[in-house]
Specification:
Elements (H helix, E strand, L loop, with lengths): L6 E7 L6 H6 L8 E6 L6 H7 L3 E4 L5 H15 L4 E4 L11 H9 L5 E5 L13 H18 L11 E4 H6 L11 H11 L4 E5 L13 H22 L24
Parallel strand pairs: 1-2, 1-4, 2-3, 5-7
Antiparallel strand pairs: 4-6, 5-6
Helix pairs in contact: 5-8, 7-8
């Protein structure tokens, strides 16, 4: 609990067998009420390791993609009564020890969304972020800040915290099941007027850490630009998009997930 609010950590997992235990062990368990891992049809022993650690584990029999994995994570967190949800990648790229700090920023009432920023501390490149990813991150962030009218250090971190209200309000079922889900979700949060804060977070890049290749990075970047364009076109009243509709599809119980 954080200030009387139930804190659930979610882990969207794919082939995280080698790093899961270390990630889990460094969570601030004195504050975390529950950990939920969704295994997206991994080819290794991720699910077995998760269960041995006592993590509530949900298995996708077929791979649904990074966005599809997150949708199941958030559904499960809401179903189990979360007030605050923090997403931690089980590949140990982000520091699990900062979960309580991020959740506290939410519990304080100051923010609805909190991002663990790799850029604020100025250590992204020292942590091993490839130069092309760093340059693309800065370029896309500049465009996003300009188009959305906000000022964040980065939009592309996978370390994120949300209030229950955010997850229940955003029409997340309208979003992509691929990596661009992350971008769409933040653009939605801005569109719906939620307050976004940031916390400096060190990052580590190594062989076992999840990272999309150059080709997928290009596809992701184009998807980010597409989500910004949709935001602007919708705001200008030229066309309405379901991802920004208050009547859009919200998260529903998922019977396809097997525990």
């Amino acid at each position: 609990m954080i200030l009387g609010k139930k804190l659930i950590v979610i882990m969207p997992a794919y082939n995280a067998e080698k790093t899961l235990a270390q990630t889990y062990e460094e969570l601030p368990h004195e504050y975390v009420d529950e950990v939920i891992l969704v295994d997206d049809a991994s080819k290794d022993e991720t699910a077995r390791v998760a269960r041995e650690l006592g993590i509530r584990t949900v298995i996708h029999p077929d791979n649904r993609g990074y966005g599809g994995n997150q949708k199941t994570c958030y559904r499960e967190a809401l179903r189990h009564g979360a007030d605050i949800v923090v997403m931690v990648h089980p590949d140990y790229q982000y520091s699990p020890r900062l979960v309580a700090a991020m959740a506290s920023m939410i519990a304080s009432g100051h923010y609805d969304v909190v991002l663990g920023s790799r850029i604020l501390g100025g250590t992204a490149l020292k942590g091993g972020m490839p130069l092309y990813k760093y340059i693309a991150n800065r370029f896309l962030t500049l465009i996003e800040n300009t188009a959305l009218g906000v000022k964040l250090s980065e939009y592309h971190t996978g370390f994120r915290a949300f209030t229950r209200g955010v997850l229940e309000t955003l029409p997340l079922e309208e979003n992509s099941d691929d990596f661009v889900f992350d971008s769409e979700m933040l653009v939605q949060a801005v569109y719906f007027g939620f307050r976004i804060g940031e916390l400096s977070c060190p990052t580590k890049y190594f062989r076992e850490a999840s990272s999309i290749n150059f080709r997928r990075s290009v596809t992701y970047g184009l998807g980010v630009l597409g989500s910004i364009l949709k935001f602007l076109v919708d705001r200008w009243g030229l066309k309405r998009f379901a991802i920004f509709s208050r009547g859009g599809r919200r998260l529903q119980p998922d019977d396809r997930a097997a525990q």
